[in-house]
Amino acid sequence: MIADEPTTALDVTVQKRVLEMLDAAVDERGSSLVLITHDLAVIAAMCRRVIVMYGGRMVEEGPVAEVFRRPRHPYTHGLLRCQPTLDNVTFDRDALLPSIPGQVPSLTEMPSGCAFRTRCPRAEAGCAEVPPFERAGHGVACWHPLRPADTAPPAAAGEGVP
Ligand code: SF4
Q1: The pTM is what?
Q2: Which tens digit of pLDDT belongs to each residue from 56-65?
Q3: Residues 6 or more apart in contact with residue 49 via CB below 8 angstroms
Q4: Is domain 38-160 in CATH 2.60.40.10, yes or no?
Q5: Residues with beta carbon inside 6 Å of ligand 1?
C-alpha cells in the first residue's frame, strides 16, 4: 500500500484513527506500507525504515531509530533540529525554533553538484562539482557526512519523537 501524506492537516485525534486504520489494513492484507510524509513523528510511530528525499533525490536511508538518533546527512540533521522538543521550546515570544536557512531550489534551477549545498553548513568547494551518491547500509549521499560526535542535539530530538 502507498499512503501519500495521509495525515496532513488533520487534527491529532483524526490522525490517530487514520494511522490505526492503515496499520489494520496492512495487517489484514499481510502487505507493506510505503508512507510519504513530512511528519517525522508519524514516521517514528509507523515505519521501520526511512528514506529522506531532497530535491527529488534520496539523501539518506536506513532504520528509523538509527537515522533519527544519528543522522548523517546535514539535511536530515537540520530537519530533526527543527522539531519542537521540551529542550528547544520556550515561552519567550521572541525566541525562534531552529530552522534550515534558505529555500528549496526550483527543480529547474538546481545548483550544480549537491542540490543541498546552498543551504548546507558543511558545504565545501568540491560539493559544487559532483553530485554525491548514496552508499550502502545506513546510506548517505554526502561528501562530508556528520559523524556520531556531531549529532548530540538531534539525538535528543530523535528520542523525543514518539
Ligand atoms: S555533499 Fe556537501 S553540500 Fe551536500 S550535504 Fe554533503 S556537505 Fe553539504
Answers
A1: 0.85
A2: 899 999 999 9
A3: 61, 62, 63, 64
A4: no
A5: 74, 114, 116-117, 120, 122-123, 127, 132, 142-144
